[in-house]
Amino acid sequence: MSPLRAFLLLAALLVGSLAHAGQPCTEPPLDPDSLRKAFGLALKTREALDQSGAEVVMLARVGQDLSKWGLRYTHLGYVWRDSPDGRWTVLHELNECGGASSALYAEGLANFYADDLFRWEGLILIPPPAMQQRLAAAFRSGAFMTMHDARYNMLAYPFDVRYQNSNQWAIEVLADAEGGPFTGRPEAQRWLRQAGYQPTTLKIDAATRLGARIFRANVAFDDQPFDRRMAGQIDTVTVESVYAWLARYTPVARRTLVRL
User: Fold this and answer.
1) Which of 145, 174, 168, 146 is nearest to 155 (CA)?
2) Domain ranges in the chain?
3) DSSP letters of the chain?
4) What tens digit of pLDDT does each residue of 161-195 get?
5) Are 107 and 21 in contact (CB under 8 A)?
6) What is the pLDDT of residue 19?
7) Residues 121-157: tens digit of each pLDDT
8) Are 61 and 50 in contact (CB under 8 A)?
9) Residues forming a β-bridge with 235
10) Could you tell me which of 27, 66, 55, 44 has the C-alpha nearest to residue 167?
């Protein structure tokens, strides 16, 4: 039996029990086709990672359609080869059930993709070896947890510590590994500003902001600079902004796209 057939057989056996990745609340299980795609994309990603020779990479997925904002990827995490047998573990922050809090998760590649994706692809960014080593040291020591703040905001401002979104956690972990160790998030944010990180600016009018604030617990705007907020200019950490900054900061970083 081929590796892909074996992987998909395992997916079929798990279809009745595997719910959306990283969601502690009750969610309906994925349908068999979505689960098959999640495992298939996980296998392709694992093959690409094995061929890369990397120890730590960043991995993005497409959870929903953000094309009207000029964005493609929605969520960013790390993938770490954390054992001698070559097992890959995803480390990332996840919003809990659309509420105002988040938690850190360590899980497999299939779980990372088992989230009812809008598009079945993954984008891998491979940092240079020295950066990978510093990140791996942070994962082994648990230092990556010091950059986590459970107060979640999907549109968190990059240079304020009132909230955090998942992509912001990822880049603050990178800042801590590169410029730290820091005692907290303010130092990581100052380092990122000095290192030339530029957030994505979204144009969101007052009516849309009000509706989002009233009806969504995981969206807030009070951390945004007042003048920019009143002008409808909302700055936040996106996958695209992280990748663009890292390409400037270390041009030797490599990108790999995986698709079903």
Assistant:
1) 168
2) 3-259
3) --HHHHHHHHHHHHTTT--STT--S--PPPPHHHHHHHHHHHHHHHHHHHHHT-SEEEEEEE-S--GGGT----EEEEEEE-STT--EEEEEEEESTTSSBEEEEEE-HHHHHTTT-SEEEEEEEE--HHHHHHHHHHHHHTGGGGG--SBB-TT--TT-SS-B-HHHHHHHHHHHHHH---SSHHHHHHHHHHTT--PEEEE--HHHHHHHHHH-TT---TTS-HHHHHTTEEEE--HHHHHHHHHHH-TT-EEEEEE-
4) 999 999 999 999 999 999 999 999 999 999 999 99
5) yes
6) 28
7) 999 999 999 999 999 999 999 999 999 999 999 999 9
8) no
9) 201
10) 66
Cβ neighbours of residue 119 under 8 Å, at least 6 residues apart?
62, 72
Those residues whose C-beta lies under 8 Å from the C-beta of residue 39, and which sit 6 or more positions away, are 7, 8, 10, 11, 110
Dist CA 180 CA 173 (whole Å): 10
Q: Which residue bears the tokens 């010091």?
A: 146
Q: Compute the mean pLDDT over every residue in the chain, rounded to the nearest whole number.
A: 88
Residue 80 to residues 119, 134, 158: CA-CA distances in angstroms?
Answer: 23, 12, 25
Q: What is this structure's pTM?
A: 0.87
Q: How far apart are the first and last CA of the chain?
A: 20
Question: CB pairs under 8 A, 24+ apart, for 27-31?
Answer: 30/114, 30/116
What whole-number distance in Å separates Cα of residue 189 and Cα of residue 193?
Answer: 6
Cβ partners under 8 Å of residue 230, min gap 6: none
Reference 204, options 169, 239, 176, 228; nearest CA is 228
CATH number attached to the domain at 3-259: 3.90.1720.10
Q: How many residues does the chain have?
A: 260
